[in-house]
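Appendix B, example 12.
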Amino acid sequence: MRDSETAWRGALYGPEGFFSRGAVPADHFRTAPLIGPELAEALLVLLDRVDFALGRPARLDFVDVGAGGGELSAAVRALAPGPLGRRLRVTAVDIGPERSLPGVRWTRELPSRVEGLLIGHEWLDAIPCPLVTGPHDDPWLARWWPLEPGWRAEVGAPRDAAWADAVSRVRGAALAVDYGHLRADRVAGRYRSGTFAAYRDGRQVTPVFDGSCDLTAHVALDACAEAAGGDRVLVSQRDALAALGLTATAEGTGLAWLESAARASRVAELRAVGGLGSFGWLLHGVGVPVSELLPPLPAWQP
């Protein structure tokens, strides 16, 4: 039987893999960093809170894991205000071809230490994992996704390990932003067909392991949270962005109103229920209390 995890990994990251050949998310689907500068603005508010909690260190990191085309890294670098910006080191981590972005360091490997904020924006969903059909005796499934006969699932252990490793390198905060699911819904059979899917040129297509499409699956963010441990919260993007100051309100008159309305439209897309606003934000504080970074918010419900 073909090893699905190995096939998935080769299709994305092998010599002729989808991402290895230079494909970027902007060419195949719409993600939050492509909408406008607002996500970067919100993350800079979060980064400033991390910076304050760390005592304003001489150097502050922003690490973008699974950076794709580097749009988020570039926006954070460009928008960082003076005092913070002068201390800020922005690192984009991606296995694809290096992009030339002003003020952004590009690497294929996670830094050994991060003092500041590490973010995996739609990174975990692109980490390959075994595809199985129940019944199955995998220990991860027994804990996180018990399968009835005929149900399909993705074994999330590789994502758990990757996220725990990333968080272990951080002093400050680590944030995973992704679409995903929770154990209660998995057990109830909401995802009995699994979530493995493929995209090409903005359309969902039949998954194949030939490097021609992006292969992805929803993330068991609750399992990732437990694997990394520590002080953490799991909330919706909609609520988190509002807590960081992004609200969809147009103000002013004339040209100012038009610009404000365009911004409000972008913020509304980022916070849309059933769309990007329903993404999970898994935030870990490492040496920094999460309560100093976000106020109490409702628990995430995908």
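The first strand starts at residue 60 and ends at 65. The mean pLDDT is 93.
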